[in-house]
Amino acid sequence: MRTSLLVPLLLAAACGSPQTPTPIPAPLAGAAPHAERPAAPVERPVEISDAVKIAEAKAFLAGADAELMKVVVAGLEAQWANETDLTDAHAAAAAKANGAASDTYARLIKRARAYEAIASKLDARSKRMLEVLIYGGGAQPSPDDPKQSEQLAQLAEEMTGVYGKGKVCAKAGDPKSCKDLGQLSEVLQRSRKPAEILAAWLGWHDEVGRAERPLFQKYIGLANAGAKAVGFKDVAELWQSGYDMPPDAFAADTDRLWEQVRPLYTQLHCYARRKLNKLYGDKVVPRSGPIPAQLLGNMWAQTWDYLYPELEPYKGVARTDVTPALQKLGPKQMVQIGEAFYTSLGMDPLPPTFWERSMFEKPPGKEVVCHASASDVQYDNDLRIKMCVQKTHEDLVVIHHELGHDYYFHAYYKQPFLFQAGANDGFHEAIGDTVALSMTPAYLQKKGLLAKVDVSEKATINHQMRIALGKIAFLPFALMVDRWRWDAFSGAASPDQLNAHWWELAQKYQGIAAPVPRTEADFDPGSKYHVAANISYMRYFLADILQFQFQRALCKKAGFTGPLHACSVYGNKEAGAAYQQMLALGASQPWQDTLFALTGERQMDASAILEYFAPLQTWLEHENAGQTCGW
Questions:
Q1: Which of 372, 374, 436, 533 is catalytic?
Q2: pTM, whole model, 2 decimals?
């Protein structure tokens, strides 16, 4: 994922993984017309004035494409320097570069709108470029006021810096008593002592979340001013416009997808609550209602992977966690395992510059953003990933995910800049996650990471539970983050009730509750990287749906006839060729057409995720029989 002020523009394929999804933008991702597309015009002779206007529009688009690429690359270079060495000087340079890119983007959108009236008369390629430029959905344009523009850029970098440098110190002035997010998260992951877990949760939310509140409150007004300057009501409408459909239709589509998967999530929630109640007792985890957020093994309760030992369906069955086998490998070797998956599909090896310029470990003596991300910094096959690799099964999955971004970049880097993006931003996040679905026990054994494969029904349920604690538990969180931000930017959530609204949505979608009463002095959304970095999050919800839809299509192309959860396309050139063809399209056409090219379907559909987890859902329903599920 790319991270920056210009969400899609400065595509930062930053994704912590299915376990710790932490996101990213896609450069001007999947453009979506602001309203219904006009009907095809009745053919008529083109007037001279039209011909002049058409030629003018095409010249403008060619120039805009080149200009945007130049300023966005400059922004990405500054951002890369800052995130791999957090200093005041680097932060100032990144703010300046991103501000320049934001100003350029806003100026070009305003000029582009002058050609909307003749869009239907342009050739298909030019018309698409115009749509992508105006409705890229996610890039943050600058306000008209130069002073506000400068403030917006500075705020963006300040919010990211506060998050990246965040630490919780037991003793003021004693660096040795301080813990960063990784160390605090480890407490939530490993400890089963309620008081210890609560202290770690409160430390991060109070220290970092509260620090972000005044910054974000200022950011709302400035960001909305930028959106209005280019013809949108607010940032919510700007973001919702990036999906080749009207904003309200897109919002409704996310509701439809959630309703498809909600019954499966409810069963998982019901099972987890009962197990946690048994572990902690009624005073800590009630038998009904929402689950306390701090007890789910993740700082935001977004994934529940670290609860697997407590939630494991069958004890004594061989586990598929390859963490022990990874201890003998270095970070680069783990990345090479990921690369080998993509090359087994017939894709190119990563370029030599990838190995020279990527950051796999935290450099000694430097503060960095360890949050995993991928970038094509030069938009010219300058592929990189940035992460502080841990020798865990989770990070091996993250590596496969991040390389998915890089292979997407590689597939479309010869396209015009405006088309160098995912079909929509959900596509970008789904590419590597689809590959990770093929990391089956059989695949892990083939790579020498797993001694033996257990194909029993019990082993299947255990394996599905492990995956569901990442994928299914994540779905409502991925949906509610931007639901909250849509309301914050549109004003549907009162400025003095932002934190209360966060917890209302957390209970509505996730079925979780704050561990202690929270007030408007708190700002728990600010404890999440994507909020601090202004990276739209709906892409992760869509990716969680799309990856299973992609996987089902790839498995069919590979000739696989067994149950979907058992399929791995590792080594299958037919599946690889189909995937490569889709990736090469970038954002050159509406995502519905690109989805159809791979799957034969024009609508995002959660039936594949239900097909994949059918064994687990049946098992959960049996285990939850007699329970009052829901909250």
A1: 372
A2: 0.89
